[in-house]
Amino acid sequence: MPPGRNLVIVLTHGLRSDALDDSQSWPLQTPNLRKIVDEGLRLEAMAACPADRGGMVSLLTGLHARQHGYVDQDDGQAVSPCWGWPAMLTEAGYHVAGVGCVGAVEPWLADAVRVDHVDSPSSARCAYLSAVRAKGMETAILQQRDKRKRYGPFDPDRLLMDSEDDIDGFIAAKARTMLSQMPADKPWALVVGFSGPGNDLPPPTLFEYLVDPTTLEHGFVPADLKYLDVLAELDYPRILLQRLDPAQIGRIRADYLGRVGLIDYAVGRLMTTVMGRTDSDRTWLVVASDRGQVLGEHGLVGHRSFLAGATQVPVLIAPPTPVKQKTYPQLLSTVDVAATIAALGGCDLPKASVGRSLLPVINHQPVCTQNWPGALSEYGKRLMLDTERYKVVFNTETFDSIGLYDKMTDPDEIENLVHKPVAASVLDSLRNRLGDLLLPLRAMPGAGYVNTDSVKL
Predict the structure, then answer these.
(1) Which residues, 6 or more positions from 435, have their beta carbon under 8 angstroms from its beta carbon?
(2) Is the predicted pLDDT of residue 455 greater than 70, yes or no?
(3) Using one digit for the tens of pLDDT, what is the confidence trace for 381-393?
(4) In what order do the strands lie in the sheet with 401-406?
(5) How far apart are the first and last CA of the chain?
(6) Would you say residue 92 lies in a domain?
């Protein structure tokens, strides 16, 4: 048999869908990601889990948060090794390697350059910290992380550093080296896990002013925390949000976009390395993110909410040759990304997964939409159903509906309709659709941990 597809899978952290320049929402150019959009399939997952750990585990396993149990914010804890498509590709005969934040799948990697997330303490297993330690930069890096932990992106400690001394620049350089060393006589998959752009660190010096902060101050309004506390868990102390002003939000947005630019540059270098390989004609590229990031919408900064910035993430799929089908209009979830990656490697996720492979879209064939009444996301005590027109949020303890938005007439999610007269009939219909969506979900044993014993369920 001829060798199968090769896969370069780029997993980002906190990349919101409108950060790519094809959305024309921000004055940032992302030429390398745009090239993938122009030649491949550009999708948007509407229902990423906005709690850290939960979003990444869904992306790896094809399971909703309700199934795998990661529904709460991680508080800096690492994801336990979780079975998913990296394990399946290994079992299917792939040479699977990983660079970056890949600790959750490290047991199934033949080669790995592990980098711990910025929330993790200093670790002898983190290749990045070992590298900056050898350069005499470890103390400055750890002090920067400590300030980030206390103040988030509001008052970062800015360091003069080259791009490859930044955590994501380091990951990009190591990924290029690993990519050049992948075998030519068998199918392979390289998983590249970036820590950003949603890691709340300032970008390295060359990427710090890709966008003028003064052009990003528009649309800021102070947070109405009394109203928003119902729909969001605050990532930072209330006093920091209450002190926000247009100039500060412009700087926060510029830092975030600088990190997006760094990842765009890294993806371009990876694409160049792929084209230099003899097996580039069977190498596919997938770019996805675990969650997005809120950048001043409703006066908030963070991610633990169901605002569009936090839950809508980009999904890019680029085969070796350009495709005609560029978009797919139906509602998607990150569980569909997992199913698609598994399908690219000729694998099927277990029956417990409700994710749908999106490969038929590239082949101009319909995707199965049976029993798919919307997109589902959950974190903490909140559950969201996103449909073609409405977004609704429920409290899972009281069963009350706490948020209802008409996306057609109110795309910025300004007016909560939950107590309006129109809500009664709409909510009844949405509850029925939610029931249809929850019905096929199978709970996995050992909440908060997905192990190899659960794959047959």
Answers:
(1) none
(2) no
(3) 999 999 989 999 9
(4) 375-379, 382-386, 390-395, 401-406
(5) 31
(6) yes
Return the DSSP state at 51: S
* Domain presence at residue 315: yes
Please give the DSSP secondary-structure letter assigned to residue 332: B
**Is 442 among the domain residues?**
no
For the chain, what is the domain count? 1
Strand, helix or coil at 416?
coil
Torsion of CA 211, 215, 216, 222, to 10 degrees: 150
Give the CA distances from residue 288 to residues 208, 239, 412, in Å, rounded to whole numbers and listed in that order.
24, 33, 23
3-state secondary structure 53-111: CHHHHHHHHCCCHHHHCCCCCCCCCCCCCCCCHHHHHHHCCCEEEEEECCHHHHHHCCE
Confidence of residue 121 (pLDDT cuts 50, 70, 90): low
Q: Which residues pair with 406 in a beta bridge?
A: 390
Packed helices 31-39 and 246-275: angle between N→C axes, nearest 10 degrees:
60
- List helix spans (H) across 276-413: 308-311, 334-344, 359-362
Instruction: Give the C-alpha separation, 108 to 296, whole Å.
Output: 39
Structure tokens at 37: 């959009």
Average pLDDT, the chain: 88
Residue 279 maps to which CATH number? Answer: 3.40.720.10
Strand order in the sheet with 41-45: 41-45, 313-318, 283-289, 6-13, 188-197, 95-100, 111-114
Nearest-CA neighbor of 345 among 45, 1, 4, 91?
A: 4
Q: What's the angle, vertex CA 80, arms to CA 12 and CA 63, rounded to 5?
A: 65
Which pTM value belongs to this model?
0.94
Strand partners, 395: 382
Residues 6+ apart with CB under 8 A from 290: 11, 12, 13, 14, 48, 49, 52, 55, 56, 58, 59, 313, 334
Domain that holds residue 63: 6-375
Residue pair 351/88 in contact (Cβ under 8 Å)? The answer is no
**Would residue 26 count as lying in a domain?**
yes
**Which position has the higher pLDDT, 238 or 29?**
29
Are 74 and 50 in contact, with CB atoms under 8 Å apart?
A: no
Give residues with Cβ within 8 angstroms of 34, minimum separation 6: 20, 21, 22
Residue found under tokens 């009664």: 424
Convert the pLDDT of each residue in 265-309 to its tens digit: 999 999 999 999 999 999 999 999 999 999 999 899 999 999 999
